[in-house]
Amino acid sequence: SSWQDEGLARMARRCGYNLDKMLDMQTRLETAFPVSFVESDFCWDWLAFNDFKLDVTLNHVLNIPPGFLSWSEDDKKGYLFMMRGAMHRGEDSFLEH
């Protein structure tokens, strides 16, 4: 779909169109996330949500609440927005959830 093509293009730009860097990003991302996130491709959604900033996304992985994938789409989005906002403000309040 067009949003996936756009996401791949954004990832390529972030990696300087270097295929080795893109493959390294894939490996690091898929290794860091739980298998269920990789199988559902949610790890890629999370990376795209963070504008393909792997370091931010990997930091978020450390704080995934139990049962996250079973939450409603609105609850997942809300949690991601909360995490991103807290990190931008230099807060770690998302660690308490």
Which terms would index this structure?
single chain; 97 residues; mainly alpha; 0% strand; globular; disordered C terminus
Helix and strand pattern: HHHHHH
Q: Quick one: overall form?
A: globular
C-alpha end-to-end distance: 34 Å
Radius of gyration: 14 Å
**In terms of structural class, how would the helical and strand content be classed?**
mainly alpha
Helical residue percent?
55-70%
Low-confidence stretches: 93-97
- Give average pLDDT, whole number: 85
Name the beta content range.
under 5%
* Largest sheet descriptor: none
Count up the helices.
Answer: 6
Number of strands: 0
What do you see in this structure?
- This protein is mainly alpha-helical.
- Helices cover 66% and strands 0% of the residues.
- The chain is built from 6 helices and no strands.
- It has helices at 2-14, 19-32, 35-39, 42-49, 54-61, 73-88.
- Helix 2 runs parallel beside helix 5 (54-61).
- The longest helix has 16 residues, at 73-88.
- The radius of gyration is 14 Å and the shape is globular.
- The model is unreliable at 93-97 (pLDDT under 50).
